[in-house]
Amino acid sequence: MVEEIKQKCNGLELQNEDVYMATTFGDFIQMVVKKSRGEDEEELVIDYATLHVNNMTVKMPYQCFINGQFVDADNGKTYNTINPTDGSVISKVSYCSVADVDKAVAAAKDAFENGEWGKMNARDRGRILYRLADLMEEHQEELATIESLDSGAVYTLALKTHIGMSVQTFRYFAGWCDKIQGSTIPINQARPNRNLTFTKKEPLGVCAIVIPWNYPLMMLAWKSAACLAAGNTLVLKPAQVTPLSALKFAELAVKAGLPKGVINILPGSGGLVGQRLSEHPDIRKLGFTGSTPIGKQIMKSCAVSNLKKVSLELGGKSPLIIFNDCDLDKAVRMGMGAVYFNKGENCIAAGRLFVEESIHDEFLKRVVDEIKKMKIGDPLDRSTDHGPQNHKAHLDKLLEYCEIGVKEGATLVYGAKQVPRPGYFMEPTVFTDVEDHMYLAKEESFGPIMVISKFKDGEIDGVLQRANSTNMD
Ligand code: NAP
């Protein structure tokens, strides 16, 4: 009958989900009539901030995204998001309030309990997520440009890593939608064993996601894709300083066919929006990536409010140990990549390098030679190696980190200064002679600062113990 209707209605496009979602004949007829009138899709109205940059026109939604619509914040407040390359304003952005959180959670709850998302066949859900990944790929240049403007990521890296890995993440999890299975478990050890129990995995409901600013879209992808694939709905707060790629993502999600209310994006402050999310009684789980102190606070609020589930990906201080029998060119290349990748704003950065004494001086010399070759500049320029730090407060924190290093007696070999040009650029920096008790040895910088400690030739046990003795509390 479906094929007959398609033929009689002049090639009217009907999808499997249109048929499955119309569970009675009356619903089906209504849907066919609406589709043939072109009334089936609600029009999405977007007030863009538009820029002509990087040889393209970039169109950026800047309002909160609640229940499938871009709307002003409840109290009408906005703030400016800043381009770290020159300190200019990219766009105003809605500054969400607690009332916006409550609206977004109500929309996500309704979408979960009464909307299409919850009823949809898992394979159809997967198809929508594949479509979303395809749309992100189609818009990858625009997304990478937004990421460069808003976070200072070097464009070539943004294209491959920030956006490329986000696309791949959605594609990967789209494939999971119809493969989320439980187990069949024997419950009796006696023979013959004919007693079985089974588990069936169900989505939790409304999930909250709070993310940092270093890889804005990738952090969104890592947390949201699995959450959506499992059939949950979500309310996401991007970092206040990098909201634009998340809002563009919301636009693409509508185009991909995600039903209204399934994704809600709330730009605003952690203390207000993030805190309300961790306390909200209708949220069943919160996923957070960010600093250890805020992670602790969130875990506490999640417990005290409604014992919601919580997952935390927090700070780190990973060691990299370089022994004297290494290929030194390779060690220099890898050491520099581990510290300076994405201007050091990298949660898997090498927070501390241990270098065996007999190669220490040569290693240091080669690192400094390589730093001098790095091109610092506009992240949209394809030959740039090192862009600006993400925002001013972060640059200030990094300069202060270096001052503490100098005061405590570490040897400053290179950098530790702001680059004399507009924007928030910092010279790639190297410290050595860092002793275990020093601030630099214990605290994560989250910036382009190489922290080197020597170890005596052959002292393998000693260096392993030192490398493992960080306590991120
Ligand atoms: P942060 O200050 O903890 O902020 C992270 C997010 O939490 C932001 O969206 C922030 O909002 C929000 N927030 C702040 N206070 C909150 C509260 N009371 N309740 C709920 N949310 C709140 O961290 P950051 O400075 O953005 O990021 C740097 C840290 O993240 C580093 O320690 C780094 O290691 C870690 N990180 C870890 C990973 C990982 O995978 N393990 C990845 C990336 C980063 P605002 O935007 O208003 O500040």
Automatic annotation (TrEMBL):
Q: What GO annotations for molecular function exist for this entry?
A: oxidoreductase activity, acting on the aldehyde or oxo group of donors, NAD or NADP as acceptor
Which keywords belong to this entry?
A: NAD, Oxidoreductase
In terms of PROSITE patterns, this protein maps to:
ALDEHYDE_DEHYDR_CYS, ALDEHYDE_DEHYDR_GLU
State the active site: 313
**Tagged with keyword Oxidoreductase:** yes
Start and end of every Aldehyde dehydrogenase domain? 70-471
Q: Tell me which family the UniProt entry assigns to this protein.
A: Belongs to the aldehyde dehydrogenase family.
Query: What is the protein's name according to its record?
Result: Aldehyde dehydrogenase domain-containing protein
Source organism per entry reads Hymenochirus boettgeri
